Amino acid sequence: MDLWRYFLRRIILTIPMVLGALVIMFIVTRILPGDPVMMILGPAHASPENIASMRKLMGLDHSVPVQFIIYLGQLLRGDLGFSYHAGNPVSQELLSRFPATFELTTFAFIIMVVFSVPMGVVSGYYRNKTPDNVISVFTVMGISMPTFWLGLLLIYIFFYKLGLAPPPMGRLSAEVEFPATVTGLLLIDTLVAGDFQAFLSALHQLILPGVTLAFFNMAIIVRTLKADLIETLEEDYIRTAKAMGIGIRKILFRHAFRNALLPTVTMLGAIYGSLLGGAVLTEVVFSWPGVGLYAVESITYLDYAGLQGFIVFYVVIFAIINLLVDLSYRWIDPRVRLD
Amino acid sequence: MTEALLEIRNLHTYFRTDEGLAKAVNGVDLVVPKGQTLGLVGESGCGKSVTALSIIRLIPDPPGRIVGGEIMFEGLDLLKLTEPEMRTVRGNTISMIFQEPMTALNPVYKIGSQMAEVIQLHQKVGKAGAMERALEMLNKVSIADPERRLNEYPHEISGGMRQRVLIAMALSSHPKLVIADEPTTALDVTIQAQILDLINVLKDEMGTSNLLITHDLGVIFEMAQWVAVMYAGKVVEYASVDDLFGRPLHPYTGGLMESIPHIDQAVSPDKMLKTIPGMVPSLFEVLEGCSFQDRCNHAFDRCRSEEPHLVDVNSGHLVRCWLHE
Amino acid sequence: MREMEAEQTTRVNTDSLRYKFKLFIKNKLALVGLIVLAVVFVLVAFGPVLSPYDAFNTDFAVKLQSPSSSHLLGTDNYGRDVLSRIFSGARYTLLAAVVSVVIGLVLGAPLGVISGYFGGKVDLISMRGVDILLSFPPLILAMAIVSGLGPSLLNAAVAIGISYIPIFARVARSRAVQVKRMDYVQSAIALGSSRARIILTDVLPNSMTPLIVQATIYTGYGILWVAALSFIGLGAKLPTPEWGLMISEGRQYIITGEWWMTVFPGLFIMLGVIGFTLIGDGIREVINPRLRLK
Lengths: 339, 325, 294
Fold this sequence. Notes:
Radius of gyration of chain A: 24 Å
CATH topology of chain A: MetI-like fold
Oligomer: heterotrimer
Strand content of chain A: under 5%
Order of helices and strands of chain B: EEEHEEHEHHHHEHEHEEHHHEE
Shape of chain B: globular
Structural class of chain A: mainly alpha
CATH superfamily of the domain at 4-80 and 220-320 in chain B: P-loop containing nucleotide triphosphate hydrolases
CATH class of chain A: Mainly Alpha
Strand order of the largest sheet of chain B: 6-7-8-3-9-10-12-11
Number of helices of chain B: 11
Helix content of chain B: 25-40%
Distance between the termini of chain B: 22 Å
CATH superfamily of chain A: MetI-like
Number of strands of chain B: 12
Strand order of the largest sheet of chain A: 1-2
CATH class of the domain at 4-80 and 220-320 in chain B: Alpha Beta
Radius of gyration of chain B: 21 Å
Strand content of chain B: 15-25%
Structural class of chain B: alpha/beta
Order of helices and strands of chain A: HHHHEEHHHHHHHHH
Largest interface: A-C, 56 and 48 residues
């Protein structure tokens, strides 16, 4: 019961924040540049008639606050404008491409958690000894490597040199057919269709971009977890546990672990946001047909409607993720009050 | 003299720090008699807590290490036990309670769960049996509404109650020795008295011996039968409570007694509270002779050149001072 | 026991700056960071002078050559010497990163300090504003701003700087809240010192330390973000030898095996980031004694 009220309250609080973000977006895209009409139309379509009618269409003959209200109205209707380089409404493009990004991001997220949590614990427990030093080398490299560079490097090594990875050209290799769309997530859809070969192909294509995307954030999690574990192990209740005769393994995994994990869990929202951002770079490198690639294409073709739509889309998704993380945090740490 | 339950001989525990080698415990000898309370008293930094942690071997290494001595308990030298063997002692035959009850319990687990964990570790019971015992122990430490407490989290109960829970945990396996390191210092004055009473009652009920560490002579007087006074990493006086308060032999002990303000002492503007002049010597510097020399009114030549030994001057009353050797 | 006793038994002053510097140096990683940073600094300052070739000089006769004795890091698709481009390009990436941190600090830290010190409505409003900035996933905010301002290296630096404001504001704010509770601030307030004076002389200086650590580390990240923005076309423009842009240019050639145009700029980016990160870590360890190891 309490949880529902908290949930509702958080949603209500999130709305002004998203609204604020939209204001910024609006200012940035409609007010700052010299002539938004030129931006939207692009150089190819800027005839005087088009400019005049576009001006009317965009409601630029109204005052600024009214423009914003109209803009909001359009957003609420799901109208993000027309993506001229794709030839479709922006919202349609975003929705059709989102499953690809979602699959990639979630896959990277899973890789990240599965590998970085044990590494963080090992690193924290064996502080300054060999395991920690080895892991630290990787983490320092991990947080210093540009994601897009890592992707290219991995392609060079595993595709060009070793031939282990598939060519970076999409979600399925050329010979395999796309299964019927159920969720849009290939790993699931291929299994539903019973096409095991397609499933393997989809998995195969996911590995390199997934690792690329995960790497940076893995390094961050390992480092944070290590520091938190070290700090947790100094706490009084750990001393109590030791004084009661509890063995080190139990202390690590039962007593220290949950407490050390708390700050990392808080970070999960930010991490997912970072993944969303990093997905843009990864999709470019691997020609992955997701929303990130769409955004960069929009930039390249000066399709400002597309870019704006993408940004609004991401802001909303990010807000939802943060909300969910907030809720789960309340569930994990009994001390957190429903303020 | 009564039988000894725990005997510490020539204990040395050192710490490597950025500032040098700190000799926190520098040759401590003491005895905890069976069924009685030994009070360990001294100023902050004299090594009392380190001594206690050395007994159950919880000295963090690095930066510390027990470098010498023996701790005899039930015929065994605790310092020679392996770590797994030591773990069967901790919380089982020797238990320790610490100063800060507010942070001593794990915030993410319920109280019942934490107590049951310890009980199941040392006793052959299942989860249900452990919960029953936990309930019994909560009753023993006079916690109201114990069933509810078992299901609560530490942050939902007060500091005094948390200390009771910790005492209950420590006593759950009927240890022979309970070490209490300033168990009431962090609590309200009214709660302090209650907790001290509780410790005494339980000691009589369960026949445990207590090692009570405190800087408060008043607490010693109320709770202990025997007292050891520590200064700069060593024991400087050891006696029964009556002997110590009746006839303190070491100048430091005398100074401590005098610095306690008396309730019937007239306080006038020109009469200052008595203190012991000077400061505790640094743990890093090695002094020649007695470590108390700079603050002692009775110091003479021998004090500055030779270190005195701990000798028995009056059937069970030991002191480390050239005045009495 | 004998060995331990034979060790030094004199006390060492742990508060002096000299001691802290010695401790910093003792940390081998921090030392590595310092060396790396020195190299980077030299490149930024003297890059073009040190370059064997002109970074902008095209020579199609030697295009796409793998590393050799005449071109240590190879040549790109225009025949330009990769090494020279990297050396000359150092200043673009790095200065942009520094600009972004400066913007973030100069705008964010005072905001955070004022917010933390005054609390109440001021705090609420500022932090809501900060939260709004934070509601964008990192790269996305920069993308939004640059697309509005028009792509250029300076705009990229500004965009990243703006996305840094909330980070520095938060750090400064939490520190200011802590410092405000300290006795020396409370007594200054009780003595009637003006608020401006208290902030300038007591709160701000004591909030510096965590900000210094963050500033160092985020300069490193700034290098990454500047390169990333350039990579997707929102930063430096051709033919600037900015490292991220170089990777973008070399990208299509990697599948055909010409790796040096992509690998080397990235390596240098990594070096730069590592340098700043290690130094930031080193400073943090010196400042926070609890993290010190023996």
